[in-house]
Design brief:
- The protein has 277 residues and is an alpha+beta fold.
- It folds into two domains: 12-161, no CATH class; 175-275, no CATH class.
- 35% of the residues lie in helices and 21% in strands.
- The chain has helices at residues 12-18, 40-49, 148-160, 162-174, 179-194, 204-209, 222-234, 258-275, and strands spanning 53-59, 71-76, 83-89, 92-106, 114-122, 127-130, 139-141, 199-200, 239-242, 250-251.
- Strands 1, 2, 3, 4, 5, 6 and 7 form a seven-stranded antiparallel β-sheet that branches. Strands 8-9-10 form a three-stranded antiparallel β-sheet, with no helix packed on it.
- A hairpin with a 4-residue loop joins β5 (114-122) and β6.
- α5 runs antiparallel to α8 (258-275).
- The protein is globular, with a radius of gyration of 20 Å.
- The mean pLDDT is 83.
Length: 277
């Protein structure tokens, strides 16, 4: 049984305040006759039995179909950590522990299946990453039935693939990037953040997103460079301008929408994997 006295995990009461759509008991009236309602809170309770507790939850803002909208629930198992890195800076050793996470998305409007995705969580910066499709396929449970055994199978498959992620992380830590390589890598990742928009950035912003936010992120290895660039991109620690109007620079905003957050993070991790080949 998980210890909910630990601030790490959210209680059902806290989740009710954060994302009440988790607890909706029926599907919307727009669902088809084939639709079977799967309460998200049931999956939460079943994952708890498997040792995975909720550490975060969000829901999409909705004016229509409120209570049936898409939501995200993030799970972590305190007994499962996949890697630890020790960094020596000025004679002090800093430990970077990484935990796997399970990211579950669902809705009750018939538009989305239960989707399970894998993520990573760095304790040192409280930063979450979404693992690329090359290493973890997304698992789905359609709203046409649900059982505990199927859930166990999904979790077992996801955990069995962690070795591949550990291998990739270790490869990243062994790859040293010189100044030019770090610049090109950061540029590639920043392009992902602005793609599909009219926004562009000046080259001096690339140097800004390479700046570490803490001593644990110092280092020229690919893993360290990736983590500090990823955090700065997601947190909006750069400026941009409109390429069409050529207006003045504006400070980027942190990504708050969880769908965009997951999409951008997955693309960033995928780009980093290309350098680890």
């Amino acid at each position: 049984m998980l210890d909910y006295q630990n601030d790490e995990f959210k209680s059902l009461e806290e989740l009710q305040e954060i994302a009440p759509s988790i607890f909706t008991k029926t599907g919307s009236d727009k669902t088809s006759s084939k639709y079977t309602h799967i309460p998200t809170d049931r999956v939460i309770k079943d994952l708890e039995l498997l040792g995975w507790g909720v550490v975060d939850a969000k829901e999409v803002s909705a004016r229509k179909d409120k209570g049936f909208q898409k939501h995200l629930v993030v799970f972590r198992n305190p007994d499962v950590s996949i890697n630890k890195k020790s960094t020596n800076v000025d004679g002090k050793v800093f430990e970077d522990i990484v935990f796997p996470q399970i990211l579950v998305t669902n809705s009750h409007d018939g538009k989305n299946s239960f989707k399970f995705q894998a993520g990573l969580y760095r304790m040192v910066c409280e930063n979450g990453l979404v693992i690329a499709d090359q290493q973890f396929e997304d698992y789905t449970i359609r709203h046409m039935g649900y059982d505990f055994e199927a859930l166990q199978g999904v979790i077992k498959d996801m955990i069995s693939n962690l070795d591949l992620t550990v291998e990739s992380m270790n490869k990243m830590r062994k790859i040293e990037l010189d100044e030019n390589q770090q610049f090109e890598f950061a540029k590639k990742l920043l392009d992902i953040r602005v793609e599909g928009t009219d926004n562009m950035y000046k080259e001096d912003q690339i140097g800004d997103i390479l700046v570490p936010q803490r001593k644990e992120d110092f280092g020229d290895d690919l893993w360290s460079v990736f983590n500090r660039v990823q955090e700065n991109i997601v947190e909006g620690n750069f400026k941009y301008y409109n390429a069409k109007t050529l207006g003045s620079e504006r400070q980027a905003r942190p990504i708050k929408n969880f769908k965009q957050d997951m999409d951008v993070n997955k693309k960033l991790f995928s780009a980093a994997l290309e350098y680890a080949v």
